[in-house]
Amino acid sequence: MTQPADTTVVFQARSIITMNPMQPKATHVAVRDGRVLGVGSADELAGWGPARLDTRFADKVLMPGLVEGHAHLLDGGMWNFIYTGFHDRRGPDGRLWPGVQSFEALIARLREAEAQLTDPTQPLLAWGFDPIHFGTARMTVQELDQVSTTRPVVVLHASVHLLNVNSAMLRRAGIGADTETEGVAKDAEGQPTGELQEMAAMFPVFAAIGNVYFEAGLREDGIRNFGRLAQLAGVTTASDLSNSLADEAVANLVKVTSDPAFPLRLVPAYNPIRGPAQGGPEHVRRAMEHNSDKLHFGLIKMVVDGSIQGFTARLRWPLYYNGQPNGIWVIPPQKTLELIDTYHAAGFTIHIHTNGDEATEMVLDAVETVLRKHPRWDHRHTLQHCQLADATQFKRMAALGMAVNLFANHLYYWGDAHYRLTVGPDRANRMNAAGTALRLGVPFSLHSDAPITPIAPLFTAWCAVNRQTASGRTLGASERIGVYDALHAVTLGAAHTLRLDHCIGSIEVGKYADFAVLEQDPLEVAPQDLRDVPVWGTVLGGQVFEAPTHPR
Amino acid sequence: MASALDSGLRRNDEKRPPIALTVLGGFLGAGKTTLLNHLLRAPQGERVLVMVNDFGAINIDAELIAQGAPDLPEGIINLANGCACCAIGGDLMQAFLKVLSLSEPPDRVVVEASGVADPARIAAMGRSGGHFRCDGVITVVDAQQVQALARDRYVGDTVQAQLRAADLLLLNKTDLVTPQALAGLRRWLGAQASGVPVLESRQAEVDPRLILGPLLADPADAAPPSAEPDIDHEARFVSHRFTTAHPVRRVALEAALASLPPQVLRAKGFVFLQGEDGPRVLQLCGRRWSLGSPGAAQNRHHTRIVLIAARQDDAPAFNVWSHFEACVAADG
User: How far is A79 from chain B (nearest CA, A)?
Assistant: First the structure.
């Protein structure tokens, strides 16, 4: 029996990186029913019968669709607001927003946005501002009042722990010289400067404008924007690592992913702490009834400690380099053990956020305890971030059958701060130790934690390959890994942690026809240039998604 | 972009009195939920809304919270997201925004903090921009476990921070330790949280007025002045009243509050400062006190303060009149 020609498409490419060691390179890939029918030369594929030859990628390079193993849908919602970050960043429409590197540039960008608003009472909201790059200079109402003296202006910092507002917003929030709240910065005359630190100080602003930043990502348009951001980066599968799986959230995800125009497979992980009190394994199983080829419920996510740059990660001795007290537990250690026990015994794979090495140690202990009670093969429990683990801890991960997803982007974005301020040179050099994971045989992936840093696995791979900070310092040269290993981490490595390596992660017969379409061969460019390899778009289940290009 | 902001700016113009905020802290198993149930079982005439930052099932007796806000039939907001104190934009912030949006806001919000939360961070919300007024941080202490927990490899520093954050400590489960151990615990707590008064209980059974503050009727119907303190049924606590129709001098009042003897645990009052026509709410919990913004102007400037003190036969007697006398201005 032969298939009609239009059901089989053969894509011809300059080169195909398969990530399948049996056949690392090819020029043609045949696709039928959204899956890979065969990989090889035109001749090798001829035996599958008549096919339509698609040559649009003849001068491009295909590799397996990239897999982002740790991101958040929130990333899609942020683009409802004006980007004011220090580094260049691309919006969901493909527009490149140059980094804002001076107060003047910030004022100019906000003025431009202000001019486009028609309702004079509508507040102007921005995000991503990062004063860590401005030395000791602090932004005040002086700068933001140049944007408007009547329209409230709010600038959320990249850390999301601070806000800057203008005088109009201060008035609207009722913050004045007599406000005694801790975190309301004041000048020499006792007037608020417009900088509001931490939640108590920021609360009056949110009481006036609502919880807008954090609600935007949960809506349908936020999920769609997230899909576009992923597509721009060559990503065909991404996780949403912390979801309540509330009915409305599940319904939105089902609706968006069932749209053929949505270019992404989504893997939302259930966080038992965010779910309903009557949640538990049954709650996850109910959501799994909605699973499809583009929507995969079934992972569990837990957060154990905070962040290193926020000094809330739990560190072992000697704690923080600048003398800050140790960080916080988000869940009591005893409760962490109980939750791991519950979901491990129920057969789920658990992803556990541990930034600091004390948090990592506690979770290793917990997993070991649980495994003794309920031995289980191939559980793939995965430490997320796991930024400060030492070689001994990686050895334990290997022995316990665990995987790890390292936050390689931190090396670039906060590497200098880690070296100078948070953990000091010794531990900054061993951060996100992909080299050790590779040597000790811990299955590993690399991630962006978008929106904390932009979703862009080729950049993330570049970070693990070069371990270079924003200022150009190399952190722990011996932990660098090769380009092939880094590409493996952002394809098959991530697929392993998501338990999807049977259907994604390599271009291989039987798997989904998910490709990243690149203008250059990442294995041929200099390792230093990996981050600059242009992404043309993606192919998802054989369907072509060209990335939107935006006039510069 | 406009869709995110359909609601536009909410008006902050209408002046609503701040909502009282009480934070119950303490490690897992200390007795926070027992205390909460105990408080709810003895209603003080306030409409109380409860926020529970617990993991998993909520163990609060639902019938006790039937008096909650009408928009929230159960009167509970579950702060599911672990350590609520540090989640910007997270559940705690969302919960506080929800309270403000209620058509009939409660008189008081009681937050049961998670076992690893720093209650001081939650209390900071009550000092924020006039929406809430922190009425005290009460850390519940497990007499049997606290010293071991304070040495624990993973949570020791968290437990110690909870003790330091307290305005009042409630040493609970005292029946489970020997009298000698109890005496040692008192000394140990005095070193851990210097100057913080310590109450004691068995099953978190404690006079609600100590946790939530004394009751205070409307200042308009002031009770006749009484020099005799009210003695409660167990005679462990004494309540004192101070009233005056004369204006109060702020500097002298602040000095009087700073020099209260250690047995004074709580105070609440309406105070008319010199030159002001509206009363300020005075609130004291342990050694921390606050004086709110002036309320709406009233014709009768009747200052009234209620204080609750531990009865200590060996301590010098506390005379509320002589203590506050200097605050009264010669004339209005």
Answer: 9
